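Hi R.,

Here's the chain you asked about this morning:
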Amino acid sequence: MELMDLAKAKLGQASQLMNKHQLDCWIVSFARESGKRPDPLEYLVGTTVTWPSAFIVNKDGRSVAIVASGDVGQVQSGGIWDEVRGYVASPREGLIKLLDEWKPDRIGVSWSADDDASDGITYGMYRLLESMLQGTSHEGRLVSAGPLAGEVRRRKLPDEIEAIHSAIAATEQLFPRIAGLLELGLTEKELQSQIQSWVRELGFGYSWEERMNPIVNFGPQRANGSLASGRYPVAARTSHPRRHRPPARRLLIGSAAHVVLAARRRE
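And the predicted structure, written out as tokens:
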């Protein structure tokens, strides 16, 4: 399944769960300059935008993107949103018009106090959204859609499950190759670089930022968590060139090799 089809299927899944979460519609994303910061819900939106934009799904399954004229073509080409409405000066008029059409009592917004993966909107954009609804019949109807966003992420569709199994299988194939590479004198950075080259050869991506994936630690200490008894992975130690860099740690007699790797399949 392509990313476009997966995103549409997940939006459909979200609409089916809205009654359970007592929501009439969900503003999946209300953002601007979205490419500058990670958005945990970008997998549903399918694109980045420059100007303030609203991506909204109704409990009946309809989905609408309200974006600036300069972003319309990019959002339309993604093929995820049923309708893309452009604006010139401000999204307020288009947003109010849409909400007037849908007449929601409870409008979900992607924020959560306890789930980072469901906390998509920034404080500034939330305040902007509130100001746009001020003085309208929709004022005071914003509620958290965090529980819905969390359930949509947790409930895996068959294609998502297949992708997870594929990534697990590929990761498991790498560990025998890692074991075959271990020899005295090998540095953490050398091992990390070789593993990353294998991941690229397989056509996979990373489940977290590449410079920290895989995490590699050598030493006599017992591995404990992702940082192995408080030791920093080699990528973290060398990320600030003006700071002192400890010598590259090498694999010695009696050392343990601690490797944490998580790959994901690219569509």
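The radius of gyration is 23 Å.

Let me know if you need anything else.
M.
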